[in-house]
Amino acid sequence: MEETNKESTKDEIKYRGIRAMPFVIGNETFEKLGTIGSSSNLLVYLTSIFHLKSITATNIVNIFNGTCNFGTLLGAFLSDTYFGRYNILGFASVCSFLGMLVLTLTAAVSKFHPPECGNQETAPVCVGPTARQMTFLLGGFGLLVIGASGIRPCSLAFGADQFDPNTESGRRGVMSFFNWYYFTRTFAVMVSLTVIVYVQSNISWSLGLAIPTITMFLSCALFFVGTKIYVRFVPKGSPLSSVAQVLVAAFKKRHLQLPEQPCFSLFNYVPSNSLNSMLPYTNQFRFLSKAAVKTPEDHINSSDGSAVDPWRLCSIQQVEEVKCLLRVIPIWVAGTIYYVSVVQSQNYVIFQALQSDNRLGHINFHIPPASFIVISMLSITIWLPIYDRVLLPWLRKFTGKEDGITLLQKMGIGIFLSIATMILSGIVEDKRRTLAMTRPMLQMTQGKGAVSSMSGLWLIPQMALAGLSEAFTLISENEFFYKQCPENMRSIAASFFFVGMAGSSYLSSFLTSVVHKTSSWLAEDLNKGKLDSFYYLIAGLEILNLGYFLVCAKWYKYKGRAGDNKVSERTDQNEIVI
């Protein structure tokens, strides 16, 4: 490959740092404007232009989002094992652009979408899409899935690759890059959910989808213009093979007994080029430690001390790295279930807004339904500085800990707030439906029912609380994965968040389908359904999830370092205070 010839030794690497940032940051900004601008209003697009039922549209969006997130694991694997981040990012960016182009054509060309609803005296007659129209639309979604699967797990790491981690200026540059990365992401999301959504809802779907398509073209152009100055590392294989070796070796030696003092008796080879920190021996998942039991059948290389057959004999350090990964999984499950409430609150707040009075005061300005999601982002933006500058210093003094409270405690608070969010959402929906039945407005929502006289501004508190919940859970979960997984598995750890989002999307789609088939809660016309009961059902699910999370947090042992007495002691204790 091209990358293999270019970088044979570390001395040949020329880090361009800041010089590469305009291309990387520009690519990231325009890419987020494109993808989020195209996908943030999909529910409204599918129901109003393609005349799909709300349940069908919700399931398509959930499956689309879930597949995009789940695909990041495959994208990370292909990047780290075969192709490298540059090649994956380039290919994925082109796929995203083509997917957005297809989506734009479905709105701009009349043959690619159903005709407008005909006017009848009783109700408008809406014709659904043909098989060819749906195939073309789903083809665009497929290209967007390929693009997201490659861009999401690789873009942040590729930007950090441009700085030399062995110099002070390089380390500062990485910190600056992370700040700019999240700033541009937030900026892109805000613009997408306000300006682009407004153009789509009030001016033209063709123009509203063409704008993010153009920004994605600019993203591709900026990325390829900077090709000559990028640092492109050669793939060195996937850490998943190390995990497989431990599992296979432990299974082969499942009948063996562990020595009385395993931490001193097990095979403990550490490669000279290992990036991982030394880990202390732990008693959790003891059966895996059998992979490091040396038997007469095991042979050692005389040159470096490594095992001749790594599928039969593994280092205890290798085993402990796998244990770290396994300990994270129960916490990841709790995070996945948590995001069901996030997905449902974001989906159904749009339908609530469609059948609410969205006028802003007494002026003739209507807030686009999809823009209500911005409230949760504003909540996060406002809360984080307050927490960092005001609450965190007080917590440090109160708890005596540098972080104030542990990462698992933050996640627990976020799950608790999600329960409060669902309960509040149910109360607001009950009020909205009551006013829709007793004091409806004159207009009707296309394909649905009467518009409630309740102001859409009453949806703000539930979205603000949802944002506060995400501020606790989302950030702490990402930090948790990064810190608790071994260093050589951090690219896989970065995919955990997206895979969890994928699982929550699929779970949300399944839950929505089951509730729709077994009850009348999720009717096309919210006024004839019981959306508040659905919210209470999710609140009950989150209560069970909170109980499960507390059990897992009590069991969890934080990753330590070998030779650090304080840390080693801490890993034998339960870190979270229940």
From TrEMBL:
It is found in: Membrane. InterPro entries: MFS_trans_sf (IPR036259), POT_fam (IPR000109). It comes from the Eukaryota. It is a multi-pass membrane protein. Keywords: Membrane, Transmembrane, Transmembrane helix. The chain crosses the membrane at residues 88-109, 136-159, 180-199, 205-226, 365-387, 407-428, 492-514, 534-556. Pfam families: PTR2. Belongs to the major facilitator superfamily. Proton-dependent oligopeptide transporter (POT/PTR) (TC 2.A.17) family. This is Protein NRT1/ PTR FAMILY 2.11-like. It comes from Solanum pennellii. The gene is LOC107021712.
